[in-house]
């Protein structure tokens, strides 16, 4: 039992590789201890995800955010990359000015990579906005290998079968 709880905890703190249909079917549950939302798959708590797909839309508001959509063939995942690190009270309260400027520079570099039609891999926190699951992006990689998409599919299926589905669901 303790080992199962440890595995559940490890998945909560890991960027789980998910296909869009799986990501979009996560259950939303409000936690009483904080105002943030929590997500679960088969009763297992998840907080971060990795997704890969073709960028099909892009909405850029300079110095505020970049919102884009990834299509992996099973669905479309909304993603948001925040670009307001230098003006955000949250960032200035929790980071030194040097750290904030480094985070802002990283986000700006990631935003420059996002173009329509590119195959992108994103990692970030699972979040909820306007009734839909999205990824609040922490990093973006543009894939140059044409096999990356099928490899991601195979990894997601393998992880679902051998890891995510192998864990017994936690009682709700």
Question: What attributes does this structure have?
Answer:
5 helices, 33% helix, single chain, 172 residues, 5-stranded mixed barrel, RFA2-like, telomere, OB fold (Dihydrolipoamide Acetyltransferase, E2P)
Task: Please summarize what this structure is.
The chain is 33% helix and 38% strand. The chain is an alpha+beta fold and 172 residues long.
Description:
Keywords: Chromosome, DNA-binding, Nucleus, Telomere. Pfam families: tRNA_anti-codon. One of its GO terms (cellular component) is chromosome, telomeric region. With 172 residues, this protein is α+β, with helices and mostly antiparallel strands. It has a single domain, classed as OB fold (Dihydrolipoamide Acetyltransferase, E2P) (Beta Barrel), CATH 2.40.50.140. 33% of the residues lie in helices and 38% in strands. It has 5 helices and 9 strands. The strands form 2 sheets. Strands 5-6-7-9-8 form a 5-stranded mixed barrel. A 3-stranded antiparallel beta sheet has the order 2-3-4. The chain is globular and about 45 Å long.
């Amino acid at each position: 039992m303790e080992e199962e709880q440890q595995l559940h905890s490890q998945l909560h703190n890991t960027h789980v590789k998910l296909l869009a249909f799986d990501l979009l079917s996560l259950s939303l549950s409000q936690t009483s201890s904080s105002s943030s939302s929590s997500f679960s798959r088969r009763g297992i708590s998840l907080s971060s995800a990795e997704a890969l797909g073709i960028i099909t839309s892009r909405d850029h508001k300079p110095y505020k955010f970049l919102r884009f959509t990834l299509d992996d063939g099973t669905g479309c995942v909304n993603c948001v990359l925040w670009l307001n690190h230098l003006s955000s009270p949250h960032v200035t309260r929790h980071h030194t000015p040097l750290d904030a400027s480094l985070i802002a520079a990283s986000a700006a570099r990631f935003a420059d990579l996002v173009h329509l039609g590119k195959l992108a891999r994103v990692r970030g926190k699972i979040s909820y906005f306007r009734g839909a699951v999205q990824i609040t992006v922490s990093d973006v990689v543009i894939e140059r290998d044409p096999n990356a998409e099928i490899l991601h599919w195979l990894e997601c299926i393998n992880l679902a079968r051998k890891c995510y589905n192998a864990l017994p669901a936690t009682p709700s």
